[in-house]
Amino acid sequence: MKIVVGITGASGSIYALRFIAAAKADGHEVHAVVTDSGWDVLEYECGVSREKFSVKVDKLYDNDNVGAAIASGSFRTDAMVILPCSMKTAGSIAHGISDNLLTRAADVMLKEGRKLVIVPRETPMHAIHLENLLKLAQVGARIVPACPGFYHRPQTLDDIVDMMVGKICDQLGIEHNLFKRWQG
User: Fold this and answer.
1) pLDDT reading at 111 higher than 90
2) Which residues are annotated as a binding site?
């Protein structure tokens, strides 16, 4: 599978790093685009620079390059995951505003009927946030809020992150052993 990963400036970049690792481990091709504030958060929260990040993906695009391959429906991709997804980005996509490569790539996923998974990392949310997420769900996006469960009895922060990333992988059919599934 060819997956586009979008990273915005919302807190939670660790989810993106772990998702990329899981997708690559399962043999998938990962293309990525990161907003300016996404770079700031990656550096602040995870200590990951552009140089360190670029070796983790198959192709890294400049968010200002709206002519890049992922901006076109003729470039075959299977899915896009935006994680973490800021409310600014969710609002732009919900209203068809494709003013950068990340939002254009998401718009392409919707118009082509491809999988788009949005992982908002915001709390609390007000009515506008919820309306934008509802609008995205109504046009086919999967909304997977970054709120992990605890039935797998996490012992570390990694266990909590892995639970959330596993739920995202499940949306795309990516095989993983990131958490113990509920057996009843």
Assistant:
1) yes
2) 9-11, 35, 86-89, 121, 151, 167
pLDDT at 37: 97
Per the annotation, binding residues for dimethylallyl phosphate are: 151, 167
Reported as a single tens digit per residue, the pLDDT across 122-170 is 999 999 999 999 999 999 999 999 998 899 999 999 999 999 999 999 9
Strand order across the beta sheet in which 29-34 lies: 59-62, 29-34, 2-7, 79-85, 115-120, 142-143
* Paired tokens of 73: 């429906």
Buried (b) or exposed (e) across 38-53, using 16+ Cβ within 10 A?
bbebbeeeeebeeeeb
Q: Which CATH fold would you assign to the domain 2-172? A: Rossmann fold (3.40.50)
* Radius of gyration, CA atoms only, the chain: 15
Instruction: Enumerate the known binding-site residues for FMN.
Output: 9-11, 35, 86-89, 121
> How is residue 150 written in tokens?
């605890």
What secondary structure does DSSP assign to 94-119, as a single string? Answer: HTT---SHHHHHHHHHHHHT-EEEEE
Is pTM, for the whole model, over 0.90?
yes
Structure tokens at 139: 């046009």
pLDDT of residue 182: 86
Expressed in percent and rounded to 5, the helix, strand and coil fractions of the chain are 45, 15, 40
The secondary structure of residue 71, as a DSSP letter, is: G
